[in-house]
């Protein structure tokens, strides 16, 4: 079973890229973030023609999350995060697919920090951590996949010294991510590549991709039943080089059936 997360940075504007990647990579389940599309403007027909069922939570111009599944039924379990401090922002959707509970999230960026946006990020993170604890206590096979807007360690950012005060790297955020892992979640990509510099995002500005000035902010966290089934975890870095592509690359894992 192949599960992926991909911040598409506009699902309609990047639709050709998304469809090309779906055709070549053939993931079984995909979590999308930053749809930037109203609920009625999601390209469901095109995605269905590509062989995928979908559920989504849209929002005009900003945010938005979706779960796609190939050849399987999506059993939606939740729309929106319990305790979300701002329910007007579409940042979380959850469903069961082929015996796995999939939570798709788009954690707030939080910049500029400090400030109201950073405070909102921390409140959202706190609510998410509380919900993750509930999922962990269920002992179900769960993957929490998405754009966390967090670089957990110095190994996850190209020049750590330049990011110390950024909302994606401040101590409060890194500590929140560590507290989340302490519940028993496994950072899939890092667990299989413990010492490797791996990035999932490269800014459009200043030739970030060509300079490999990247960040690792897209993560898949696994509950203990899935950790035992983890066989591979990689980044489809080549997709970031495609024309009119997102500033993120898809990240995926493979699980034993």
Automatic annotation (TrEMBL):
<dbReference type="InterPro" id="IPR005135">
    <property type="entry name" value="Endo/exonuclease/phosphatase"/>
</dbReference>
<dbReference type="Pfam" id="PF03372">
    <property type="entry name" value="Exo_endo_phos"/>
</dbReference>
<feature type="domain" description="Endonuclease/exonuclease/phosphatase">
    <location>
        <begin position="4"/>
        <end position="248"/>
    </location>
</feature>
<dbReference type="InterPro" id="IPR004808">
    <property type="entry name" value="AP_endonuc_1"/>
</dbReference>
<dbReference type="GO" id="GO:0008311">
    <property type="term" value="F:double-stranded DNA 3'-5' DNA exonuclease activity"/>
</dbReference>
<keyword id="KW-0460">Magnesium</keyword>
<dbReference type="InterPro" id="IPR020847">
    <property type="entry name" value="AP_endonuclease_F1_BS"/>
</dbReference>
<dbReference type="InterPro" id="IPR036691">
    <property type="entry name" value="Endo/exonu/phosph_ase_sf"/>
</dbReference>
<keyword id="KW-0479">Metal-binding</keyword>
<comment type="similarity">
    <text>Belongs to the DNA repair enzymes AP/ExoA family.</text>
</comment>
<dbReference type="InterPro" id="IPR037493">
    <property type="entry name" value="ExoIII-like"/>
</dbReference>
<protein>
    <submittedName>
        <fullName>Exodeoxyribonuclease III</fullName>
        <ecNumber>3.1.11.2</ecNumber>
    </submittedName>
</protein>
<keyword id="KW-0378">Hydrolase</keyword>
